[in-house]
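User: I'm curious whether this sequence folds into something compact or stays loose and floppy. Could you predict its structure so I can see for myself?
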Amino acid sequence: MGGPPWYAVNEVLAFLIELTALVCLGWWGFGAGHEGAVRILLGAGTPLLAVVVWGLFAAPRARLRPRLPLVLLVKAVVLGGGAAALGAVGHPVAAGVLAAVTFVNTALAEVFRSPAARKA
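Assistant: Here's the prediction. I'll summarize afterward.
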C-alpha cells in the first residue's frame, strides 16, 4: 500500500465497511422472522453469498476482474445491501450513515486508484 497516508486509512476503512456489511447481512438474515432452517439459511447464507460474489468480482485479487462499472455494481449491491439490512432490522439512521460513509469511501478509493493519483 504505497502512496499518501490517507490512502492507507481509506483502504482500512473500506475493509471495515466490508466486514460491517457482512455482519449486517447476517443480523438481518437471522432476524428476518423465519424459523428453523430458513432462518439459518438466511442468517449464514446471505453473508456467505456476499463473500462469494465479492471474491469473484470486487476483491482486489478477484478471480474474474470485470470492468469498473460491474465492480462498482457488485460493491453497491453488497455494501448497499448491508446498509439496507441495517435499516431493515430497525436502525434507519445508522443505515443512512453507513450508506453515506460507504459512498464517500468508494468514491475516494476510485480516485486514489486512478492513474493521475498514482503519479502524484
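Summary: The helical segments are 5-30, 36-57, 68-88, 92-113, 115-119. The first helix runs from residue 5 to 30.
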